[in-house]
Amino acid sequence: MKITVDFEECLKDSPRFRATIEEVEGDVCELESKLDKLVKLCIGMIDAGKAYNAANKQFVSGIRELAQQSAKDEVIESSLTKFAESLQEMINYHTILFDQAQRSIKMQLQTFVKDDLRKFKEAKKQFDKVSEEKETALSKNAAAPRNKQHEVEEATNILTATRKCFRHIVLDYVLQINVLQSKRRSEILKSMLSFMYAHLTFFHQGYDLFSELQPLMKQLGGQLDQLVVDAAKEKRDMEQKHSTIQQKDFSNDDTKLEYNVDTDNGIAMEGYLFKRASNAFKTWNRRWFTIQNNQLVYQKKFKDNPTVVVEDLRLCTVKHCEDIERRFCFEVVSPTKSCMMQADSEKLRQAWIKAVQNSIATAFRDKGDDSEKLDRKSSTSTGSLDSGGEPKERSLKGESALQKVLAIPGNACCCDCGQPEPRWASINLGITLCIQCSGIHRSLGVHFSKVRSLTLDTWEPELLKLMCELGNKVINQIYEARREELGARKPQPGDPRHEVEAYIKAKYVDRRFVRRPSDEELRSKVVSLSKQEKRLSGNSEHMPPKAPPPTPKLRPGSNASGQSVKSADSGIQNSADGSREMLATTPSNNSLADAEPAETPPMPMPATLPPPSPCKEMVFYEPKEYSPGLQLYWASCARSLPDMAEALAHGAEVNWVNTEEEKRTPLIMAVQGGSLVTCEFLLQNAANVNQQDAQGRGPLHHATMLGHTGQVCLFLKRGANQNATDIEEKTPLSIAVEAANADIVTLLRLAKMNEEMREAEGPYSQSGDETYQDIFQDFTHMASNDPEKLNRY
């Protein structure tokens, strides 16, 4: 409704003018309310559209991934790729539509409300004020007494000036009203028309796009009908074949194995056999064997890398083995080694022997031909004792590790972008990540972040415990301490990858948001950490072993296991039976207390062994200077992982050396503190497991001296050199033998035995005997879950 206010009427200030003004003001107030509501609804529509586009992009990404996975099917791959491109175009059109809505509705109407309506309100304020002043002047003029001439003149002058001002302001107000009434029509229609044209363009573009796609869709529709018919036919054929095979007699299935050298893939024969390991224990393991391309190879379960047993069958012989306890055994002998195998039945044994003999004969006939060599990958590194072993049953994997880690405060969302339900982790930082952020973390390099899957990878107990003692909340308090102060925006789910990558690099590589402590704060922190041993002494979970009882009386020249101290390492050269006997006779909790008494006096504890609770002995001396390295040093002893992570964020060197305290390192102090998780945290952050102090003792020496079995097991798994000697020429094994610590002696001897067996077996050996792996797994789980069981003396 268009309301026009007459200029002549406004000068009269009649009741009709006042009624018109009141109607106009109410109409403008309602107009402002409706426009504000429309702008808010437009903003909500645009936000919802952006969310829709984001979800649509993820859907299109899923289509592309499905197309890549179906690369072998050209029809599916090409069709899905074309559909994904078309849908991406529609997303682009939607984006343009929402941008146009923002410009035509939100920005244009907001400008009208803020500019024109604001001018109207300001004019109204001036009009109301001058109207009130006019009424006051009229009342004062009317009340002026006749006999007081000066009051009459004053009232008359005020009234004259007020009327003049009123006429000027009321004319401006009426002008503003009429301009607003005229402009509202053009502004509203112009905004809506622009928005509707944007829709028209959007639907025209969509129509043109799908018109081009329609021939392909019709073609696929025709192909789909044929595919349905073919699928039904294939289903009938497979059901018939299934029924036929189900009716066959498989009672004598062993006879169906035949030697066939003319197969397309070169596999002459394949199947499961038991293989005897060439180690001291002579364990038997079931493996998948294959005779292929003039070679005999085998694979572990669920492993893709074959191990070559015999590289050239022309140099081998095969024979029955009747002189061992197991049945159906045969042996393949080459000039360098032999392989003992066992079939499931006599018929299978004969079939395998015949297949090997035929392969040898075929290889001689075709000796001029070059045979394809299999890719051999063997784990010969001693850096990690469990690097090539199969996943153990008690290692946490999948949902178990996921549930435990996500239960930590802050871990339910990605540490860097907030994406819910993360499925990846950075093990050296102790945080959870979404798949996009995990890829960015991988690109930083392992010296910044080591990424592992929470659902696909196997988690050792000490590593899982490390993840549960840190978490996103703790790490963000360190690495994002100054983020809000600097005004940096934290990424959100769905943000462009380059923005998230820039933020992560600023956070972890440049450490831009870390709050640097003052010298006084650093000093206070270091002094506080150095005094925590009194509080920690009541913590039973990580306490060092209790003080040993009086040492049992032993026969002269023997240790707790009844063996000669001088020949402590001789058990390594024993046969399989001797090795098992050594493990079986390892003293238990009470075996030392029940040792046979002797006439000789008790053997005293060696002078090189410190008291069992060394952290209580640590005395804090005022250092020459305070540094993040010193904070890491004392935090490692105090078992405070958040303070250790903070020190590393402040630039502490993980292998920092305290020259004022016998060149000890944070890892050695972690050993002194008695915490397995603290050691694991330092190792994951590239601590040197073999760095020695001024006495020539590395972490393995200290853990052995203190009787920390779990730490000994961890260091051996992480590549500690058990042959290193201190300045007194003592190795960890000799120290453990002197202390009569049966568990640590067992671990060190097993590790040495495993290392020698790998060296003896050559470059094709596996990463160690499975019995050895099982024993280390037992100690690992006990150290993490039941540490009190290792306090055996």
TrEMBL record:
Protein name from the UniProt record: Arf-GAP with coiled-coil, ANK repeat and PH domain-containing protein
Keyword Kinase: no
Spans annotated as Disordered: 367-396, 519-610
Spans traversing the lipid bilayer: none
ANK repeat feature ranges: 662-694, 695-727
Record keywords: ANK repeat, Cell membrane, Coiled coil, Endosome, GTPase activation, Membrane, Metal-binding, Repeat, Zinc, Zinc-finger
Molecular-function GO term, any one: zinc ion binding
GO cellular component: endosome membrane; plasma membrane
Domain PH span(s) in chain numbering: 266-361
Regulation: GAP activity stimulated by phosphatidylinositol 4,5-bisphosphate (PIP2) and phosphatidic acid.
Domain of life assignment: Eukaryota
Keyword Acyltransferase included in the entry's annotation: no
InterPro entries registered for this protein in UniProt: ACAP1/2/3-like, AH/BAR_dom_sf, Ankyrin_rpt, Ankyrin_rpt-contain_sf, ARFGAP/RecO, ArfGAP_dom, ArfGAP_dom_sf, BAR_dom
Record field: compositional bias (Polar residues): 558-577
Membrane disposition: Peripheral membrane protein
Main location per the UniProt record: membrane
Ranges of compositional bias, category Basic and acidic residues: 367-378
Pfam families according to UniProt: Ank_2, ArfGap, BAR_3, PH
